[in-house]
Amino acid sequence: MNISNLPTELLLQILKEAARNPGWDEATHSPAGRRVLSAVCFRWRDIVLNTAEIWSLVRVHLEKTRYSGKESTFEKALAALELDLSRTRSQLLDVYWNSRLDLAHAKRVFQVVMERAPFCRWRSLEIYNDSWDSYSLHAIRSEERFYNLESLRVRWCQVNGFLPLINRTVSSNFRFFYDKDSILATKLYESDMNNIISRTTELTLPDFGHNPIPPLPPHITRLSVCSVNLREASHVQHLKVRSPLSISQFVDHKWSSLVSLDVWFTKPRSSRPLQQQLVLLPRLQTLIVSGGYFEPILNISTPPLDRLRLERGHENVKGANSSLSNTLSHPSFSLISTKKLEISFPLLPAVLTTVIIHFSSIGSLGLGLDNSYDGWELVRHVICEKRYLGEAGGAGGTTSVAGLEDIFLAQIETLELQMSWNNGGIALKDTWKAYMARIFDDTRGKQLAMIRCSWPNGAIRQLTRSDLEESRMKDETDGMKQEEEEASAL
């Protein structure tokens, strides 16, 4: 079907999605991207200009360097912002604010925004690289309220003067607060954040240094922090720790409700083996370990996991492989019943073989591949031919792996290969299809049902065994028909 023949309702949904996901390219940056959409044809223009929801994503992205000595340029940008805001009508707004202006220009921007889009219509707010308190209190009217605000994100800025206003006026609709990099003292959180924290269920907090994290109410279940210096942790269900820390810091808390943990462990200063108390996580389902140091996993006691993901972070590939090998070979390693295993970095041949042996019952396996033919061909060699390239024998030598015929791929239904480079994601479509087909051919009689290859740019190639067999049957049928037609023509 030609896109010009699409029903208006379907076209409207496509244009809404395109307008709300413009990407970060300056050429398509909102609202310029919406103006591009409106210039395609008269039908698109009518839909775009008369649909308030398409304009509900408001991006205030103004910088002092752009308008220094160019007052006319600033006036044009301000007029364009005012026109875009007028098109939102009474629609609730998602506001992205990245504006670095002097006080005079900033006050004018605030005045335009509050006239056309008062705070009571803001559904979400993201503040980047800004210092609202330098001018916000000069422009904000006392009657302004954030009645419909559901989420607030703060990045790389101070909002001390503005935060109390949100805290005083936020309503029961508020659900999410994200503050990763601003510098706010613990006492300010306790005084200027009490209402926000009392309403949110998901919280991202900055680094408080050696000070304890402010007391958190029991309804906060999702938490992202730089340390686990918590006064109470039993109510947290989803925890992400963004800074490296020692496994010993987990011992002091009871994690009775924790379902998912995303953590980055530090290496100990001494080379002595870990001899620490077990960290009991009785409800854990998902564990993500970053940083390339995996030995602390040995001190975690969990039920069988639904998902285990290992990332190397800043550690080199060789160091991450060594740590993983040491962890798997330790007699106290207990995560072999994991259902889905993801390893984001390339594995050395012997380590890849060890992984497959230890996790023989997993249903889904994800592997990171390096930027070379040897990298992804190695996976096929180990998985399909039960062999690995011996390190002592060099790149050309091979070492057999005996007694593994019934272990390899015994339960794996899905194999995911994650590329570390973008080249060839689309251009080598046929190459990757042939590669996946070859793995299926080499694993006949196994459970493997789907192979997916993904690239950092979002490109995905996947193939199922049933699709492959159906395609081959179709090719065979088409070939027979062609032979019959050629024979009848003679």
Q: Tell me the total number of β-strands.
A: 20
Count of separate DSSP helical elements: 16
Mean pLDDT: 79
Computed CA radius of gyration, to the nearest angstrom: 28 Å
Spatial order of the strands forming the largest sheet: 1-2-3-4-5-6-7-8-9-11-13-14-15-18-19-20
Distance between the termini: 39 Å
**Which structural class fits the helix and strand makeup?**
alpha/beta
Helical fraction: 25-40%
Largest sheet: 16 strands, mixed
Beta-strand residue percentage: 15-25%
Overall shape: it is flat
Uncertain runs are 23-29, 388-407
Record keyword descriptors for this entry.
490 residues, alpha/beta, 20 strands, 16-stranded mixed sheet, single chain
Architecture overview:
This protein is of the alpha/beta class and 490 residues long. Helices cover 34% and strands 17% of the residues. The protein is built from 16 helices and 20 strands. It has helices at residues 8-20, 32-38, 42-49, 64-67, 71-86, 103-116, 136-139, 163-169, 186-192, 194-199, 248-251, 317-329, 349-358, 373-385, 429-442, 465-489; strands at 57-60, 93-97, 122-128, 151-155, 176-179, 202-204, 222-225, 238-241, 260-264, 279-280, 286-290, 300-301, 307-310, 340-343, 364-369, 387-388, 399-400, 414-419, 450-454, 460-464. It has a 16-stranded mixed sheet. Strand 2 (93-97), helix 6 (103-116) and strand 3 (122-128) form a beta-alpha-beta unit. Helix 2 (32-38) packs across helix 3 (42-49), helix 12 runs parallel beside helix 13 and helix 13 (349-358) packs parallel to helix 14 (373-385).
